[in-house]
Amino acid sequence: MTIFHGMNTNASALTANRFKMDVVSSNLANADTTRAQLNEDGEWEPYRRKLVSTEPRDANFNSFLQKSMNRSSNPGSGVRVNSVEEDQSPFEQVYNPSHPDSDENGYVQMPNVDPLKEMLDLMSTSRSYEANVTAMNASKGMLMKSLEIGR
């Protein structure tokens, strides 16, 4: 374990949180987009909400088992973005016969983006980001104090 291990772990979390905030912002920006992509039938579909999943960098069971058996003082090595997937929940049907994308019955398929959920995700991710910045600053402070020991 190096002296920068804590900072590297925090840096990976900061990167993952920033990426998640970008995806949530994209979801919010496209909350009213009714023509985002073509489906397999060649028809336009509304925007689908995107979800980010993260995982530990050393995600295999064997590495955790070896660390546990050796009573290693080396904690995990941070997180990484595992995947970005589209939410497969159904689109919302809104009655608006004057909309250019309405069907013959006057209904428009709207994206499956709930702004309230997205704002909660954004707030949670933002708080996590702030916590990692605080931990990074604490690590930096400890390293600076350790350099002063030799004076």
Structure description:
The protein is α+β, with helices and mostly antiparallel strands. Helix content is 45%, strand content 18%. The chain contains 3 helices and 6 strands. It has helices at residues 5-29, 61-69, 115-148, and strands spanning 37-38, 44-45, 50-56, 79-86, 92-95, 107-110. The protein has a two-stranded antiparallel sheet with strand order 1-2. The chain is elongated, with a radius of gyration of 22 Å. The chain starts with a helix and ends with a helix.
Give the topology, please:
Elements: H1 5-29, E1 37-38, E2 44-45, E3 50-56, H2 61-69, E4 79-86, E5 92-95, E6 107-110, H3 115-148
Helix pairs in contact: 1-3
As a whole number of angstroms, the C-alpha radius of gyration is: 22 Å
Uncertain residue ranges: none
On the 0 to 100 scale, the average pLDDT is: 87
DSSP strand content: 15-25%
Question: What is the molecular shape?
Answer: elongated
Largest sheet: 2 strands, antiparallel
What is the number of helical segments per DSSP (H or I, 4+ residues)? 3
- The tally of beta strands, per DSSP, is 6
CA(first)-CA(last) distance: 25 Å
Order of helices and strands: HEEEHEEEH
Fraction of helical residues: 40-55%
- Given helix and strand content, the structural type is alpha+beta
Give the strand line-up of the largest sheet: 1-2
Key attributes of the depicted protein:
two-stranded antiparallel sheet; alpha+beta; 151 residues; elongated
